[in-house]
Write a structure and sequence with these properties.
Length: 83
């Protein structure tokens, strides 16, 4: 049977390295995929007094992971369209 959907395990298996950077207001997450391609997610707060590194990293990571879902979804749709 042909696979016609993705799981979180599929997406997580594509992620290699992850790097976080912040300046006390904005957080950037760069995910390097197993094939070397990189995706970026960001988060930010209005007031630096409200900055929480853990929350910033969580949100930035989730947004970067959303990019992986998009790319993998495209690849799956492309492969299904060729059958």
């Amino acid at each position: 049977m042909v696979k016609n959907k993705l799981s979180i395990e599929d997406i997580n298996s594509k992620v290699g390295d992850q790097i976080f950077w912040n300046n006390g207001k904005t957080t950037i997450c760069i995910l390097t995929l197993q094939n070397g391609f990189e995706v970026v997610g960001t988060s930010g707060c209005v007031d630096p007094a409200n900055f929480d590194q853990a929350i910033g990293e969580k949100i930035a990571y989730e947004k970067a992971l959303d990019q992986v879902w998009l790319l993998e979804g495209y690849l799956l749709q492309d492969s299904l369209g060729k059958e």
